[in-house]
Amino acid sequence: MDSITEESARLFDSLAGNTWKSYSRARSVLDSFQLLYTLDKVCQGPVEQLVQFIAYLFLKHFSPATVRLYISGISFPHKEHNLEYTAKNFVVSKMLEGLHKNHPQRDNRAPVPLPLLRQITDALPSICSSTHEPLLFKSSFILAFFAMLRVSEFTTKNKSDSSTEALQLSDVVVSDCQLKINIKKSKTDQRGYSTFIVINKYRDNASICPVLTLKKYLAARPAVSGCNHLFMHFDGSPLTRYQLSAMLRKPVNFCNIPNPSLSKSHSFKIGAATEPSKRGINDEAIKNGEDGRQVHLSVTSGFLGENYFKFQFLYMYI
Length: 318
What we know:
Blueprint: H1 2-12, H2 17-36, H3 47-59, H4 64-80, H5 90-102, H6 114-127, H7 132-146, E1 172-174, E2 178-183, E3 195-200, H8 210-220, H9 241-254, H10 267-273, H11 275-278, H12 283-287, H13 306-316
Antiparallel strand pairs: 1-2, 2-3
Helix pairs in contact: 2-4, 3-5, 6-7, 6-9, 7-8, 7-10
């Protein structure tokens, strides 16, 4: 029975690590709130206290999404033990709804569309001090755009990150005319079903073709024992999320792009997502997504096929 209990707990523990951290932070903020106003220190107080806590978070300038996350975190222990939780209360639900209605969140990240992608990748040799770095960042920028990748799918958290969640060399197969990518796990695929992507040559501009660019990068990629990340520096260290964001700002500044601080790692994905409307694909066609587990993404002679965007609209949704 002990082993059954242990296995039950393991199977139940399916929340991502960052979610657990947020829930722990919610508990800490609630403790501070209760201490400040000399309230009973309980995990989940009466509805009145929860309503006051929501108002307190709002006055502290927490975003509506964070407030909702914190309330979910506070309620989690009660849900876990199948107990009644006050977050289900009508007043609490309406308050959370009101936060989003009265203070909608605006995404201030600027997209990187095709013309800007060309500019910043052309500027890389003028910014980088070595011959390997321009190839590394150009291939990562272009792949992030054409495959609509999240930064967590192709970069590591830090230099010492030994996990294999970011793209590995074995996850990519390049031929003369196409590029095959296996994304093992992502934000929308926490269980690791994996997503298979095929990208053909981009015929409009060879200088930013993902197939040709990645082939050139792979030919120059050093063979360092034990280093299997797809994107890595010449010394064998993996490309990190911080490095990608920091490098993106340099060519944006170099090209005198307005509001350079708005260009972030997610800007490639946002830029690619703006292309369907430019190509005359209506919103309904984009929203009718394909099945997300095994998808063939095609790049036509013009740009990306309509089926690509049907799926990728769901794939990039946050």
